[in-house]
């Protein structure tokens, strides 16, 4: 069963009071970096996985995306998203991220904000995202940084006076489930190494464009003094990747005279227009 803490009344009550839930994207310490990684959205079809209150969906339409679909497992999240959205070009679907099934090459852009560390099937999800993206499309997501998720405690070490000493890292190479606490409830997260995130994206067929480990903006560091500790270790990881245009190629067979038989040279080219030979075999 997929995890859905947001339909727990106590958890959701605490979540909707968070600054990013009340004030939106500008209250999220990492938003200024994620926004900078967004591709051109004008006239694009966008999929938001784990859309929550729909902030990113509405932002995409503000940037004149042609249509946006938001997917979330939580009915509470989607109810709030619908209440805050008055736009027929935005639609919401109740579905776990891992279960998405969209048409091949349906979207120009797929985004995800801080949800993949809650799902087990990241590698499979990357392949599904690749399949539903158009060639040249963008896959942009953020997760809690592997340095943050390595330990179940996910907290600083403090001295006897309560002062922060350092952020401990342990069991980094041991991937998998972490039982931890977020807001009022115990939650399950899935720790992956940085190399796993990167390699799973590459294995799905993507070309990685940018990797970021954001810190809060200067304005937020000034206005929220406790944010200065977020510069001592990375809390978030962001990756932007592009779906490389796929062309299965075509085979050309060219008969050549060779006594006493005729052989064929089999060319495999990546494009019928640009004959870059990637494979060559002689068939006898």
Automatic annotation (TrEMBL):
<dbReference type="InterPro" id="IPR013216">
    <property type="entry name" value="Methyltransf_11"/>
</dbReference>
<feature type="domain" description="Methyltransferase type 11">
    <location>
        <begin position="47"/>
        <end position="141"/>
    </location>
</feature>
<dbReference type="Pfam" id="PF08241">
    <property type="entry name" value="Methyltransf_11"/>
</dbReference>
<keyword id="KW-0489">Methyltransferase</keyword>
<keyword id="KW-0808">Transferase</keyword>
<protein>
    <submittedName>
        <fullName>Methyltransferase domain-containing protein</fullName>
    </submittedName>
</protein>
<dbReference type="GO" id="GO:0008757">
    <property type="term" value="F:S-adenosylmethionine-dependent methyltransferase activity"/>
</dbReference>
<dbReference type="GO" id="GO:0032259">
    <property type="term" value="P:methylation"/>
</dbReference>
<dbReference type="InterPro" id="IPR029063">
    <property type="entry name" value="SAM-dependent_MTases_sf"/>
</dbReference>
């Amino acid at each position: 069963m997929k995890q859905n803490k947001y339909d727990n009344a106590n958890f959701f009550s605490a979540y909707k009071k968070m600054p990013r839930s009340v004030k939106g994207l500008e209250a999220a310490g990492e938003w200024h970096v994620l926004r900078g990684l967004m591709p051109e959205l004008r006239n694009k079809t966008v999929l938001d996985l784990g859309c929550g209150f729909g902030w990113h969906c509405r932002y995409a339409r503000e940037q004149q995306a042609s249509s946006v679909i938001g997917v979330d497992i939580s009915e509470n999240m989607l109810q709030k998203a619908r209440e805050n959205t008055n736009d027929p070009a935005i639609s919401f679907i109740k579905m776990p991220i891992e279960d998405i099934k969209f048409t091949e090459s349906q979207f120009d852009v797929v985004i995800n904000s801080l949800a993949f560390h809650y799902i087990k099937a990241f590698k499979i999800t990357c392949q599904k995202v690749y399949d539903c993206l158009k060639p040249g499309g963008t896959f942009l997501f953020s997760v809690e940084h592997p340095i943050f998720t390595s330990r179940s405690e996910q907290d600083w070490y403090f001295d006897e006076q309560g002062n922060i000493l350092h952020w401990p890292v342990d069991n980094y190479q041991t991937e998998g489930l972490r039982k931890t606490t977020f807001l009022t409830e115990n939650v399950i997260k899935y720790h992956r190494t940085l190399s796993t995130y990167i390699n799973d994206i590459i294995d799905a067929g993507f070309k990685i464009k940018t990797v970021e480990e954001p810190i809060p903006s200067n304005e937020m560091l000034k206005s929220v003094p406790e944010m200065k500790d977020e510069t001592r270790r990375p809390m978030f990881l962001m990756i932007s990747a592009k779906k490389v245009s796929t062309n299965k190629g075509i085979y050309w067979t060219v008969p050549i005279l060779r006594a006493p038989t005729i052989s064929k040279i089999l060319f495999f080219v990546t494009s019928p227009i640009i004959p870059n030979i990637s494979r060559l075999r002689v068939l006898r």
